[in-house]
Design goal:
This protein is α/β, with parallel strands linked by helices and 394 residues long. The chain folds into 2 domains: 214 residues, Glycogen Phosphorylase B (Rossmann fold, 3-Layer(aba) Sandwich); 151 residues, 3-Layer(aba) Sandwich (Rossmann fold). Helix content is 43%, strand content 14%. The protein contains 17 helices and 13 strands. It has a 7-stranded parallel β-sheet with strand order 3-2-1-4-5-6-7, sandwiched between helices. Helix 7 links the parallel strand 4 and strand 5. InterPro entries: EryCIII-like_C, Glycosyltransferase_28, UDP_glucos_trans, UDP_glycos_trans_CS. Keywords: Transferase. It holds the Pfam family EryCIII-like_C. This is Glycosyltransferase.
């Protein structure tokens, strides 16, 4: 069986697909990851075969705001609406679909597995008549990826590819939607008829290690890890928030590691509090296994990996589905939520102290961890994909 995986060129969208691809390989299947050429090296770091498909349109959509010192909330909201209504289901999806169709005609494929933001894999599988599965690498898909925003553009592409209309975008999840959290985390997503929940596992890139960020730690103090993910640090507007996090953690009785993005540690780490280590990047899954608290932008990969480690959070959402995820984590008592627009060091310090001091946060995170560990493994997910190919209902 040959399975093609499709993803946008975003590392945190690829990372949850990697253990699924590795599991499929271990069972004797052939796999390849289809993504823009600019993402080739990132895929290669995980040792997976790569096939070029589509272009990196997402960087072009976000880039005009990268250098802005301040981005008003209405601009962020407008950008996110464009992302869902024009970007994800737009011409880039059709371009990816055409390239994936070409790879299928050339080398064959029995199923497509796409991360939920990628629409090209869905269109390609529909066009050639093979089953497709989506993986919820982002949270709250039925809310953020609203079908009424996606359907008009997707239907135009379906017409181009000779497919019948799908006015409510129901075919997006026609065969299988893999949710990597327990059912109680996102009741709205349970409305997807083909949804099944699976136990994800974290993956490390070759060469990942805890040192040097953890050298010389005072192990009598709690360890706090902070990161605003891979996208937010691309925007200069995030610098003041990262500075607030660094300063705030300096006022907490803890040891802290703050990951700030490529090439930014030198500038943001100047005059750093003695208990805070500022780094460009850190081996996040490894750090979360040893930490006591995560300060996060509430990206779904970070939240999922934190809860897999039984960690509570301080959530500072800014863009995309992060607000929805942060609100749900606060509702479940897993996190304290802070407002990006009024963030300062004092608020960061107070929230971190509160969460670290209240054992109920950790207890609730551990309860979700146990629920996650009780889910079927990714081996079961691969079996379900095999069943799609054989015509069985997973």
């Amino acid at each position: 069986m040959r399975i093609l995986f499709t993803t946008l060129p975003v590392e945190t969208h690829l990372r949850p697909l990697v253990p699924i691809a590795e599991t499929a390989l271990s069972r004797g299947h052939e796999v390849a990851v289809c993504a823009p050429e600019s993402f080739r090296d990132e895929v290669a770091r995980y040792g997976l075969p790569f096939l070029p498909a589509g272009e990196d349109w997402i960087t072009g959509m976000l880039a005009p705001l990268f250098g802005s010192e301040q981005i008003p909330p209405d601009q962020v909201d407008a950008l996110m609406r464009r992302l869902v209504s024009e970007g994800l289901p737009g011409d880039g999806a059709l371009g990816t679909a055409r390239d994936v169709i070409g790879h299928i005609h050339e080398g064959g494929a029995d199923a497509v597995v796409r991360e939920a933001y990628d629409m090209g894999g869905y269109l390609a599988a529909e066009a050639v008549g093979i089953p497709h599965a989506s993986v919820g690498v982002v949270g709250r898909v039925t809310e953020f990826l609203a079908p009424d925003l996606l359907a008009p553009s997707l239907d135009e592409h379906r017409s181009v590819l000779g497919l019948p209309p799908d006015p409510r975008a129901e075919r997006l999840y026609a065969h299988l939607h893999a949710h990597l959290m327990p059912p109680g985390y996102d009741p709205a997503e349970l409305a997807i008829p083909t949804l099944r929940c699976y136990r994800h596992r974290t993956v490390d890139r070759p060469g990942d290690r805890l040192s040097p960020p953890l050298e010389g730690l005072d192990h009598s103090l709690p360890l706090v890890y902070a990161s605003l993910g891979t996208v937010a640090p691309l925007f200069k507007a995030s610098d003041t928030r990262l500075r607030s996090i660094i300063d705030g953690l300096g006022d907490v009785a803890c040891e802290a590691v703050v990951a700030v993005g490529q090439g930014r540690a030198e500038a943001l780490g100047r005059s750093c509090p003695p208990n805070v280590r500022v780094v460009d990047f850190a081996a996040q899954p490894l750090l979360l296994d040893t930490a006591d608290l995560l300060v996060t932008h509430a990206g779904f990969t970070s939240v999922r990996e934190a809860l897999r480690a039984g960690l509570p959070m301080v959530a500072i959402p800014w863009i995309a589905e992060n607000h929805l995820i942060a609100a749900r984590c606060e509702e479940l008592g897993l996190a304290r939520r802070l407002d990006w627009e009024v963030l300062d060091g004092e608020r960061v310090a107070a929230a971190c102290r509160d969460v670290l001091a209240d054992p109920a946060y950790r207890s609730r995170a551990r309860a979700v961890q146990r629920d996650m560990l009780a889910l079927p493994s990714l081996d079961t997910l691969v079996t379900d994909i095999e069943d799609l190919f054989s015509g069985a209902t997973p």
